[in-house]
């Protein structure tokens, strides 16, 4: 679906699981827009590459979009001008948002600002994300995750955990209350102990997030 160069850029630089995009674009409701989406992604990547080679220093305190952000947003509005299908628009906008985030401040912005309420390209960190406050964590500490019970049943865990039990409970039972897929009876809070040496990212403010290498998880249990 995507050319090799675009696949490599998304998987290696943006840490996107490309299959998560391809599976969405292959859904029946999106079939007639698949070529539009893949062409848009190529345009977005081209704009980001141009910004990178230009040597332009990004001012993160400026409210003005950089040239890549402007190009991505302009192309998005061009291709969606006559699309009325809200489900299709949501997918296209999620793609636009992901690439704008990356254009703004690279992988850090893309990962930390990803949407969780609706579909979003899946991102899996494979290396330490900077900046972080990993050094503030104890050598071994307790983590919690609010999620669907299927993660425990299938032993397929997400990367984002928290050192705050209250935050985990919000993610389990409160944050997604308005979503169609939400089923309180299947929501749980998980608990585990984890070593600092394998942490990929930490931000101990607001949501007290810790990103783990799921292959390094030891015993995961339901919090009681």
UniProtKB/TrEMBL annotation:
<protein>
    <submittedName>
        <fullName>Uncharacterized protein</fullName>
    </submittedName>
</protein>
């Amino acid at each position: 679906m995507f050319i090799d160069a675009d696949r490599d850029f998304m998987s290696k630089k943006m840490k996107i699981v490309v299959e998560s995009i391809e599976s969405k674009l292959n859904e029946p409701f999106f079939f007639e827009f698949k070529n539009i989406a893949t062409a848009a992604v190529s345009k977005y990547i081209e704009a980001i590459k141009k910004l990178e080679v230009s040597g332009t220093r990004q001012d993160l305190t400026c409210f003005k979009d950089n040239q890549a952000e402007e190009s991505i947003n302009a192309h998005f509005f061009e291709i969606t001008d006559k699309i009325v299908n809200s489900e299709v628009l949501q997918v296209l906008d999620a793609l636009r948002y992901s690439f704008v985030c990356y254009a703004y401040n690279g992988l850090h912005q893309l990962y930390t600002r990803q949407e969780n309420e609706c579909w979003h390209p899946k991102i899996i960190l494979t290396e330490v994300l900077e900046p972080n406050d990993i050094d503030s964590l104890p050598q071994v500490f307790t983590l919690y995750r609010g999620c669907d019970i299927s993660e425990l049943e299938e032993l397929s865990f997400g990367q984002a955990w928290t050192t705050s039990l209250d935050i985990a409970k919000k993610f389990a039972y409160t944050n997604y209350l308005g979503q169609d897929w939400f089923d309180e009876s299947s929501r749980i809070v998980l608990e585990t102990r984890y070593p600092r040496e394998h942490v990929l990212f930490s931000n101990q403010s607001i949501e007290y997030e810790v990103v783990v290498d799921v292959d390094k998880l030891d015993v995961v249990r339901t919090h009681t």
